[in-house]
Amino acid sequence: MAPDQETAIGAIRLPIRRIHVELTNLCNFSCEFCPDGKTVRPRGEMEFSLLEQILRDAVGLVEQVHFHVMGEPTLYPRLNEAVRLARRLGFAPYLTTNGSLLSPKKVALLAENGLEHLTVSLQTPDADSFGMRGAQRLSFPEYKARIVDTFRAVLSNPGTMRLTLVFLANPLLRFFAPDPPRGNVPTRGKALRTRMSEWAEEVVRGTPCENDLPLILRRIRNAGVLKESLIPLAKGVWFRVRILGNWAGHFELPVLRARFGYCPGVVENFGVLWNGDYVICCTDFDGKTVMANHQNTSIREYLALPGVQGIVKGFQRYRVFHPHCGICLGERNPFHSAFRQFGSIVYFKYYRRWFGHRDEHGVAV
């Protein structure tokens, strides 16, 4: 680090790990389990000139650019330009997609433009659950084929871009997602492993990695619903298990607001919505934490705002100050609320440090 390079803005150490940039909050799906149908803020897509201003402003302050908050980023017409610009400015560009618009050609172009990591959030790995997507003019076989073809192409012609297919698990039904959609997420390890094995068979067969299929299937047998397992298929290509959180419905429940707990929002990540509004974390789908807009407040100025600094300093003392954070870390009754608040400290301060998954470069995936 250069001697004159800034190392902190108040209580926030620099560089921040990632900024989430919402290219659009439009989506081609209408999923039952997504808060998209509950959001009340306007729909739109980010002007490319605004995107360029945000990325240039973020140089030296953040390491990674994640093109996702809400919406489907592959709908953004200048996505490849956005990835190329982020890479040219020195960021590691990341992209999360529902996978419906993928093709080997599109992914190859994203990789050519410098995409660091592509995450495909599978969510509905079979025909029955796919009905919850609200997809129009797209069948499950077509959807599955696009994802499988993409993974097979990457396995057959590997490059520097990393690729992950995410499966969800819901081990503690009433704690993580008290009102989960019907039949969407496995609650038992056997169902999860069966789905993952079926996908592995289709993805790997006929590729140069086919001989490794027995090893991959053995790795899948060690996956469970109580841990966020990472199963390598090949160098830079993984299946990942993530534990479901009740992202949308939780904020509609009557909950006891949390008074203590911990969240790394802002110190690890913050977001900019398509219209330039700042949000303190990537899970604020409806702009409840907006304190400023990039068109009149620089990133450095935003991070220095008393409201932002107060949130960070509060969490450093395991105190919850912002009402949205209080709801996020709260629960329906005193027992569950205490469990969730203590759990947030254990998870973010200890569990991720001890059991977090990292790739061959030491980068968390």
Q: What distinguishing features does this structure have?
A:
alpha/beta; 365 residues; two-stranded antiparallel ribbon; nine-stranded mixed beta sheet; disordered C terminus; 34% helix; TIM Barrel; single chain
What's the quick description here?
By secondary structure, this protein is of the alpha/beta class. 34% of the residues lie in helices and 15% in strands.
N-to-C SSE string, H for helix and E for strand: EEEHEHEHEHHEHHHEEEEHHHH
Pairing-aware structural class of the strands and helices? alpha/beta
Distance between the termini: 24 Å
Could you give a short account of the major beta sheet? 9 strands, mixed
CATH architecture of the domain at 12-250: Alpha-Beta Barrel
Oligomer: single chain
What's the tally of helices? 12
Radius of gyration: 20 Å
Order of adjacent strands in the largest pleated sheet: 8-9-7-6-5-4-3-10-11
Mean pLDDT across the residues is 88
Shape: globular
| Percentage of residues assigned to helices | 25-40%
The CATH class name of the domain at 12-250 reads Alpha Beta
Number of strands: 11
Poorly predicted tracts of residues: 174-181, 359-363
The proportion of strand residues reads 5-15%
CATH topology call of the domain at 12-250:
TIM Barrel
